[in-house]
Amino acid sequence: MSEVSPPAVAVVGAGSIGVAWAIVFARAGHRVALYDLDAGRVAAARPEVERRLAELAGFGLADAEALDLVTATADLGEALAGAAYVQECVVESLEVKRELFAELDRRTGPEVVLASSTSMIPCSRFADALPGRARCLVVHPGNPPYLLPIAELAPAPFTAPDTVEHARELLSAAGMVPVLVGRENEGFIFNRLQGALLREAYCLVRDGVATPADIDLVVGSGLGRRWSVLGPFATAELNTRGGIERHAEVLGPAYARMGAERGQHDPWTPDLVARVAAEVHAALPPEDWAANVERRDRALMRLEQARRADPESFRGFSRTS
């Protein structure tokens, strides 16, 4: 244990994401002030944290005593007092975020990082006019972040590099997995990928190809299980002898036709495939292909073993559970 206590954190917005962030930070030893305008939410927040921490503790994923580090308040000044990092978790409204970040900028010192949990809105749209805009960025989590550790760091062009680094260090120390979004866009990485799947899912239902239940089944019992072990590029590398280049050669034209059917023309050009392959092969060398396939399969075996050992935990999410 470090002799230096982790810095205090203010979580602004005590809805489901705010409560989840409070758990992430308290579990890592941060003193957390959880703020909301709604007195009802303030009253409910700490019991929610307690309930979820107890569940996590039952799986060895948290210490229930982390609750002692969490306070809930309807006083924003009280929440911000002493905080080195602020995680905003209010409604997905551009106007609300503009007003709130202006207030956060006025009421905190220049060294305090101001991060938004927004799912879609680039930082430039709500923090561009602030005197302290250099300390603002988006830190978008998966939901719930105490179980999905990914955290997208999406700075604006005006965000200071030190701000990004401070956020990265704090989140890494809290057990999160920060990923830098290289350029501002709507939806960042997580929701761009999720949106692509959802758009196609809705089209397949509309076109009579599959029911919603069938699509959830294909993802829950197929794609999702595999993606819990490795991502789409690593999947392509290990699914085809010859690796990702061979996968693109064989299946790329079909995927291009599928995209064109939806009005999208984004073919996998040879230079793009080569660029992706170079990075994939740095982590998964082609000479280790067979060993990596075996490692993937063992990971999936362990997941299936866990499902079979406790089928009730998964029942209701898939027709085959």
Explain what you see.
With 321 residues, this protein is of the alpha/beta class. The protein has two domains: 9-180, 3-Layer(aba) Sandwich (Rossmann fold), CATH 3.40.50.720; 190-313, N-(1-d-carboxylethyl)-l-norvaline Dehydrogenase, domain 2. 51% of the residues lie in helices and 11% in strands. The chain has an eight-stranded mixed beta sheet, sandwiched between helices. Strand 7, helix 6 and strand 8 (177-180) form a beta-alpha-beta unit. Helix 9 packs across helix 10 and helix 10 (243-261) crosses helix 11 (270-283). The two termini are 41 Å apart. The mean pLDDT is 96. It comes from Actinoallomurus acaciae.
Summarize the structure.
Residues 9-183 form the 3-hydroxyacyl-CoA dehydrogenase NAD binding domain. With 321 residues, the chain is an alpha/beta fold.
